[in-house]
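Sequence dictates fold. Next comes a concrete instance:
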Amino acid sequence: MRPVAAIGRRVTTRGRGITASTMVTVYIVLLLAWPSFVSISQLGSLGRPSLLWGLVLLFWWILTRLQTRTDDDRSIPQPLRYAFAAFAIVALISFAAAMLRGQPGDQVSPAVTALIRLASWAGVFFVVMDGIRTHSDAARLVRRLAIGGAALATLGLAQFITGQTLLDWTASIPGLTVDLADAATRGSFTRASGTAIHPLEYAVPVVASLPLAVTAAVSGGFRARLSRNQGWWWVAVAVITIASVIAVSRSAIIGLAVAVIFSLPAVPVTFRWVIGVGGGILSLVVLAVVPGLLGTIVGLFAGASDDPSTQSRVDGLARVPEFISSSPLLGQGFGTFLPRYYIFDNAWVLVLVELGVIGVVSFAMFVTIAIGSAYWASRRSPVASTKAMSRAIAASMITIAVLMIFFDGLSFTISGGLLFFMAGMAAAMRSVAHGESFADHG
């Protein structure tokens, strides 16, 4: 097994062992392909395979860091490492303060689970950040994320057409607990959820993968030579776009708009009009072909002020001072604010309530520095495809951050895991760009 820190070095001979790229690819599969409502019965709330694999990644990262001395003169400081550390420290202090104040028995277990979930995210984040050090590894992961988003969108399309979850068969597998409800509906339409437990959780990987798929389509998969399979990337873009439109969700539509807007700077000028106009035409065709869909979507926005979910979000903002009044700086305690108190449907607000002002500031810094790291890489690298990848990753991070406003994304397996995965990718691109710049001037 090769050390994580050594994987990205320029080595002409292929070493044996498991690479960071392989390890995190397993995580992508478990995160997107394994239904988030299916867990290993004996492990309860900790039985999600992606969560467990994240802990494996953390152990692997710690082990390799202890065994390896990094003396690579191409290494570069990672401000995102310190931003994550700050967020994790605030979470730990908030948890400790909550335990010292005393908590009802049914709040202790969810709080401990939240810390374990944070440790799993840490494993994913650190292995991606420190293990992905070359252009080829980064391109490979971006392609796989784009394919995963397109596959999830395809499943969503099938659910929309059939009106079924198509995953009922998971309940027959022994040793698993399946928390699967009937397919959600809005109006006369089925709301697709893919492998997610909720349609909004499903919307995050689908919409966030659009910038990656668009950039892969334009660049031919970030390969030096254009492939005959380049057209399939445009198929992936079309599938993701259609799935976002028929999601029957305000959040998905807003996320789609954000993804498109921030994707355009990542592609050559000649493609921007093609993508913008082509995407608009494709969306209009879908709305015209599906009877009643246009009226339903227009109604979602026109009647937003009277919608119960919108009213709940607005009412929740008014109640924030009440919930943080006892501890405004550190909040109620990480993982202790249960849905029985209130459902905010806003990850940023829930971070404020659980971790206080210090916590939400540290989380905002983490997200902002991740986006900034990706944009820094796009400016520093002399390689066109690295620039494009970096901008696409930044666009994906922005899309996820915006979607977190509309639901408690950190409480869901897929959306929470994807946020920290993409943050790791943003930091990795900083290393890739610095290495390419070092080689260019070396």
Summary: The radius of gyration is 22 Å. The chain has 15 helices and four strands.
